[in-house]
Amino acid sequence: MKKLTVDEFEKKLASIPEEEPDEWDLQMLETIEKETDKSRVSLEEMDALRATQDYSGKISIRVPKTLHRDLTRAAKQEGISLNQFILYKLAK
Question: What pTM was estimated for this model as a whole?
Answer without folding.
Answer: 0.44
